[in-house]
Each structure stands twice: as structure tokens, then as C-alpha cells.
Predict the structure.
Amino acid sequence: MNSTRRLPTPQYQQVKNHLRDGIVSGRWSPGDLMPSEAELVLQFGVSRMTVNRALRDLVEAGLVERVQGVGTFVAQLHRIASTLTVRDLHEEILERGHQHEARIELVQRIKATPEQAQQFGLASGAPLFHTLMVHLENGVAIQCEDRLVNPAVVPDYLKTDFTQITPTHYLLSAVPLSMASYTIESTLPTGQEAQLLGISKREPCLVVRRRTSSRGQTVTVVRLVHPGSRYVIEGTFQP
Amino acid sequence: MNSTRRLPTPQYQQVKNHLRDGIVSGRWSPGDLMPSEAELVLQFGVSRMTVNRALRDLVEAGLVERVQGVGTFVAQLHRIASTLTVRDLHEEILERGHQHEARIELVQRIKATPEQAQQFGLASGAPLFHTLMVHLENGVAIQCEDRLVNPAVVPDYLKTDFTQITPTHYLLSAVPLSMASYTIESTLPTGQEAQLLGISKREPCLVVRRRTSSRGQTVTVVRLVHPGSRYVIEGTFQP
DNA sequence: TAGTGGTCTAGACCACAAA
DNA sequence: TTGTGGTCTAGACCACTAG
């Protein structure tokens, strides 16, 4: 059936490209009915499974929506207009070809305040691990990392040499896989944070809070403070 | 082959669940070799296409990596530890069940400064559309939207009633589909922005810049300023 | 009833990597 | 050479929606 042309581009990719081009070029507008699988089978001379894969990929990409018994439609595109990824700082710095260094300020065992205990679903006064460090990129402080860790989940956390392995990396290797929720906001640093970062107490900071859990238990809660003048989150979206 | 059990759960989903559970529970760690397609075919008594679909879904989700001729491995999970989505403000507000209102400050035609012209790939002095408005959630100013639009791509932009339709919505309907790049940072507002938002000039703001292009042309450049005390980006990640 | 998408099969050929 | 994943087929049965 397809003895010719067997080199670079899979057939499902060709179908995908054709449909995506039609959407990007505006030939089909959001809400429009698109060709059925059967039509595409005839048009491209491929099997239905191949057409189906192309369409499922487009669904995954958010470009089309499909309704059983009805048809395939161009998606309303508001939803996908913006997705960005926050990377791990260590990777980010190395990828820029820069030097990463961590300055450790605190590595200690504490007793949970009522607020902290609540975040972890533990009793007030329960033991927690606490680390506080500053991450430097080529010698410039760009992040203050204030982290609490659940000893019940990661008992060996404090044994790590955090000048060599970032807490993020250690936790990702020590805990199978996790769910996380975050917030990103703009606030002023605390006095201590300003001092550690070497910035004014009036400098706006980008603050990321992240709470990570695994198998129903909270693993870690972290506050990442970045001087606004030294750190920008970047992202791209493309169909 | 599969005459029994034909009701709710697709077979590829069962294979997927089995593998995902193994990763989440830590039975397989990042970097570990996972069962081959052939093994899974035997284990689940399904066809290879079915197993293949399950595995491709897991690749898409970022949980595994596959190497032709070698095998399937649990992914290094650093990459996926954080993906968040920035939604359209109008949708966001309505979804919270709140009132959205736009206060229009400027709707005008301007001549591009050299900097602006460069962003659009146009000649200095070329015409641009400029809108400036404040978005209110239940009467509280939460975003100042300062936008430039390319008249060559969206000639009817200024005819829109922006109290009824947000620029974002209009542009998404008027321009087929677009690529975008953004930055998110924490800075102080300009004097004008502070005044429009009714905040102090010293209040940190979350600033999103977005540049959108379609078919190789820059469509719009926007600066969205949010008072830090009133706006937080939230996100979740789960495997 | 006719047309749609959702799923599945039992093969097949290929490119690739490791032994 | 063996085993891996990447792709593809020509059918099939099903659930769903619309006329």
C-alpha cells in the first residue's frame, strides 16, 4: 500500500499538519465542523487508525474537539492561549551555561507551629525539618529557598549535602512522584530575606509557594523568593 | 478475544493505570527500565497497538521516555514538576462567579516609536492601535491592560466595544491562531498605572508581558499589571 | 437508519541499538 | 542476530447522535 516514500515524515503527521494548517490559516474557524475520519481516509489514502491517531493528537494539543456520533470541530481556542512551565532552578542555571552555588543558612529540626502543622496535616509540635538557603547564579543571589519537609516521608532529608544536591533534586529522587500546587505572587521580601539576597526591603520580589504531596501525605512546603530585578519567568506557547 | 467486560474502562486505560501506579508508588524509579510492549501484551492479553497507545499516552504525560531499539524508562521527573496555566482574565473572573467590568482609558491610533516598531517588525512611525483599560473584579481594580495591536493584521480592532468584549476575546476570534511568548515578573507600577489601579507607587505588581504572532506577523503586544496584594497566579500539577 | 467517533485486533515492515 | 520501539493496515464491534 505504501511502498514509496518511506523516509522522514509519518503519514499521521502529514494528516495532522494538513489539519493544523487549516486551523492556523483560518480556513476553519473555531466551532467549524471538520472532515470526518472516513473523508480523511479517502483523501489521504491511509487507514482509519492512522487518521484517528492524527485527530487524537490534535485533541491532546487542544486544537480540536470531538463528539461521538456527531463529528470533529475546531476548538474554541481561549483555553490554550497560555501555558507556561516553571523549571527547576538548578537545571535552568546549568542550561544557561552558568555557575550554580548554594549558600546554606539553616539546616535544622524544629517543632511545628500550629500553622505549619496544619499544612502538613500533623499535630502541633510534631517534628519538621527546616532548611534555608540562598541560590547564586554566577555569584549573584537569585533565589532564597525556605523549606519545610515532613520527616515521616523523607527521614534522611537532613543528611543531604545541600551544597552538592539541591533539595528539589534530592526530594525528587527520594519520593516517588508527587502532586503539587503553587501560587506565584509579587510581594516584598521579609527583612531576613532582603538581607540574605542582598537587596532593599522595598524591592518587589517574585514569590513562588509550592506544596508537594505524595500518596496523600504532604512532603514539603517551600517558599522561593526571587528579586524582581534579577529573575523573570519566561514561557512560550505554540500550536 | 475480549467478549467479556465491555462496559466502562478501555483496555489501554487499564494498562496505563497499571504503569502509572507503578511509577507513582515508587515500584519503578526514575531511570528504571519498564516492561517492554511484548511483555505487556502477554501480561494483559491485549494487542500491541493497545499497549502502544497506553505507552504513548504516558510519554505525552511526561511519565516515561522511550528509546527505539532500547526500551521504555521512567522519566526523570524534574521537568514536569511544575506546569501551570495562565487563564484569560475574563473567564477567570466569571468562573469565580464574580462581576467583570472594564474601564476604558484610551482607544487610539498612534505612530510607532522606534522601539515599538521593532517589536512589530514595522517601520518607525508606522500606524499602531493602542488601548489602555483597567479590569475590575466586583468593582476592585485587578489588572491594567496596556495593549498595542498591528492594524495590518486586525484592521477593525478599534471598532470593538471593549466594555462588552475584552481585547483578548476579540483578537482570538479575529485572528486564526497564534503563537505567544511571555514573561512574568515582579516590578513597581508606573505612576500612571498606580493611579489607574488606585494603589501606591511602591506596591509590588505582578507584570505579565505577552507578544502574540500569527503567520509570521506580530499581532499584539500587551503589558498586564496586577497589584501584588490583589492577584495571585495559582496552579496545580498532578500525574 | 445512517453516519459519526471510540476502541481493538493480529498481523506487518521498518529503524535502531546492543550483544 | 535479537529485541526494542515507530508506524501502518484492513478489517471489526461498539456507543452515540441525528434525521
Remarks:
- Chain B touches chain A through 59 residues (CB under 8 Å).
